[in-house]
Structure formats: structure tokens, C-alpha cells
Amino acid sequence: MLKLGFKSYIFKKSLWLFHFGGASCNNCDIEILDCLTPRYDVERFGMLLVGSVRHADVLLISGSINQKDKVRLLEIYKQAPKPILVVAIGACSCTGGIFAEGNVFAGPVDKIIPVDAYIPGCPPKPEAILAGIFKLLKKK
Amino acid sequence: MLKELFHFLIYPGFLFLAVAGGFLSWFDRKVTAMLQFRKGPPVLQPFFDFLKLLLVKETILPAKGSRITFLLAPVFSLFGATVAGILIFLPLLNIKTGFAGDLIVIFYLLAIPSLAFMIGAMASGNPLASVGASREMKLMMSYELTFLLVIAGIIMKANMNIGLYDILNTQKETGAFIGSISGVLLFIATVFCVQAQLGLVPFDMAEAETEINHGSFIEYSGSVYAIVKLTKYIMLFILPAFVVTVFMGGLSWEGINILWSVLKILSVVLLITLIRNTNPRVKIKQAMRYFFIWMNLLVIIAIILIIFGL
Fold first, then answer.
1. What is the number of CB-based contacts under 8 A between chain A and chain B?
2. Which residues of chain A form beta strands (DSSP E)?
């Protein structure tokens, strides 16, 4: 997505996170918020949680995506300024989890928009979320 | 001619203000992190943020609303902040600006960034942005009166001199203004005005992240938002510099005095950061009452004390 070099270096140094919660049970949301607490503190890597998708660099998606969420997720993805990275957090957004057979389930996130990193777990620990984001940074 | 251009673009102009403001922004975030028992961002973080927004990210224009106003508003805000900074710093470097009433001009130039953000938010056509803009407008109406009264008090303390250069000279003769009771009262009111002008907690209702998703700046992205960020860095430097100039006897750049100058600026920024970290966000109604009744009362008491020579 990004060419290697100065721009890519700058981009990795300052990632702003935007949190999209689908039909989540709130466990993954709580674990994402845990990453911002003093114990894990992602701000030391330059990451901030922002409120508007216009400022976002990383889209964190948690929870299963149902028919109504799908429309909103596509709209949010279209509104975000590129380049943007997408991270699917939790079993529900990676594969569908226990909702995979449900009649309102609209498919895991990678069937709807391209995903750059998967962080499985129900819910994943904050350490796992940090490790996932760092694997994503090393990949590019 | 070349000297003027150097003054306006490099030192003490645009480049110096932007770099110093970036470091102060890091200082603000680091102190915030330390107060919350976190480690905080690295030193160059504000510059990474700015360069990322400027070079890497895409700029999205709103589908509805006036695009040219939307794009030009941050440019005007940057212009206002930079010119105000230059007018504040030239007397500090012992250079006479050549006209008598620069305190009044600085007062109007400091109002330009908030005004431009308001116009830009209105032009974006986003309902949350207009909520932010209307709050910004109400906040501005409340703190501008207090700020004007503070400036009147400063002029009365400086024997009716309106130039920053003369105010600095008066302070050299009689001691810094903060050394008297009326000076302390004026200083308290000014710090709260600065807080409101910078849009920091407790007066950040115009860009409340959790409530209206960055309010006035919700539609800005990419390089336009980078300019907004740059304006915020510059404002974080020039407003404490203004407070130091009018209350603490200015700055000087010779020998050991450099240390005192840096410490003066850092202490004002530290005070602002401590207020921002120990207070909740107030409602716009509470902020208006706070400025209209309590801060104005404080400044009027200070002015009465000045008349009695305290």
C-alpha cells in the first residue's frame, strides 16, 4: 500500500486509531480501551484514539458484522482518508465466531473490506492486540 | 528588506514559532502522561504527526458546503497566529516595531485563529461541526471581554503606554507586574483566558472528542488538518510568551538569562497543563457564567486596585 522510505517511516511513527464496534459483546471494546491505560500505554508509540474517521490511520473493527453494520462499515471505510490500515480484532470479526451460522450475519470483515491484520481471541488480551499491531508494522 | 524577510519567515517568525511550539506540544503531552502515570510520547512526536498529515494522508473535501472557504480557513488561522507571534517577539528581541498601539493589534490578531476555525467549521456542512462552531462563538464572546479588560488593566499599570516595547521598559524600571496584588489578579484572569483561547479542558467544549467527535475539526483531514495542528502548536507557544511579556518582565537571550527565559515559558505552559489535567469539561452555559461574572469581577477589582496604586 505504501512505498518504503521516508513517508512509510513517518506513517508508522504516528498511527491514529479509530474504533468501529460492530454487533460486539463489548469484551473486545474493553480490551481495546485497556491498551490506552497506564499499564499498556500505546501513546508511547505515537498512537492516539481519535473520535472522527477523517483523522484515522488504523480502523480497529471488533464484533460480528451483521446486515445493518455492513452498510455502515462500507460507508466508514469510504469516508476514511487513504492510506488506511484495517485490523480485525476478536474471533467474531476474524471469522464470525459463534455467530458464523446466524441468519443476519453478513460475513467476516475480510469479505467486506480488505483487512491488513487479524488478531484472534475471545477477547484477545491487550498484549495480543499490541503484538498484532507490531506485526502489521513490520510487515510493510 | 532581507532582514525583514528573515524576521518574518525564520527568526522570530514562522519557522522558530513552529519548531518551538512543536516542542511545547510534546512537553504538554509528556506532562499529561506523567500525571496519569504513563510513559508518554517520544520528543519528536508532534513533528511526526504534522509530517504524516501533511505528506502521507489524503485530503477529503465535504460533499456539501463551501469548499474554498473550508480550505482557506486554516490558512487564515495560521497567518493570524504567525503575525501575532512576530509582533509579540519583536519587542522581546529589543526591536521596535515602529507603531505605537501594537498591544491592540495583537489582541485582534489573536482572535483570528478561533474566528477562522469557526468559519471553516460552518463551511464544512457537518451538523456536529456547526454545534462546535456555535459553542466556539459563545466561548469567544465570553472570554474576549475579560481579555480586553485585562489589556486595559495592563495599559493602566504601564502608565498609559500602549506599546509592548514601552510596557517591557516600564517593567524593567518598576519590577515585573506580577509582583503586585493587582498583577496577580490580572495574571489569574489571563491564564483562564489563555486556556479558553487554546481550547483546552475545562473550556474544550468546541472540540469535545467524546461528545461531538472533535466538533469544529470533524471534517478536516490530510494536509488541511496539518495546518490546523500547526496553528495549535504556534498558539501554544505565543500565548504563554504573551503572558510572560506582559506580567513577568519579558525574556532575554544573554548568558544565564536564557535559562530563566526558558523556565518562564515552561512554567506558564506547565500551569496550563496542570489546569487542563485536573478539571472536567464544563458546559458552555457554565463557562459563560464563569467569565461574565467571576472573571470580569476579578479584573474589575484589579483595575480598582491599580487606581489606588497597589
1. 80
2. 16-21, 48-49, 58-62, 85-89, 117-119
Domain spans, chain A: 20-99+114-126
- Among residues B89, B107, B223, the alpha carbon closest in space to that of B168 is found at B89
- For the ranges A101-110, B31-40, B91-100, B158-167, the one whose mean pLDDT is highest: B31-40
Residue type at position B307: I
Q: Which of B88, B78, B148 is nearest to B112 (CA)?
A: B78
Mean pLDDT confidence for B1-6: 78
Tell me the sheet residues that pair with B145: none
Per-residue pLDDT, averaged over B129-154, amounts to 91
CA–CA min distance B222, chain A (Å): 7
- Note the pLDDT of residue B252: 76
CB B19 within 8 A of CB B13: no
How high is the pLDDT of residue B191?
A: 92
Burial A56-69 (b: 16+ CB within 10 A, else e): bbbbbbbbbbbeeb
CB contact under 8 A, A43 and B41: yes
- Candidate from A44, A54, A81 with C-beta closest to B41: A44
Q: In the CATH scheme, what is the code of domain A20-99+114-126?
A: 3.40.50.12280
The interface pTM score, or ipTM, of the predicted complex is: 0.86
Q: Is the pLDDT of residue B210 over 80?
A: no
Q: Looking at per-residue confidence, does B255 or B224 come out higher?
A: B224
Average confidence (pLDDT) over B37-65: 87
- All 3 cell numbers of residue B254? 544573554
Averaged pLDDT score across all residues of chain B = 87
B28 contact partners, CB below 8 Å, separation of at least 6: B236, B269, B272, B273
Residues in chain A: 140
Would you say the C-alpha torsion B178, B183, B184, B189 has a positive or negative sign?
A: negative
Cβ neighbours of A118 (radius 10 Å): 20
Cβ of A41 within 8 Å of Cβ of B41? The answer is no
The grid coordinates of residue B266 equal 515552561
Residue A73 CA to residue A105 CA, distance in Å, equals 14
**pTM (predicted TM-score):** 0.90
Q: How many domains does chain B have?
A: 1
**Domain, as residue range, for B73:** 2-307
Radius of gyration, alpha carbons of chain A: 14
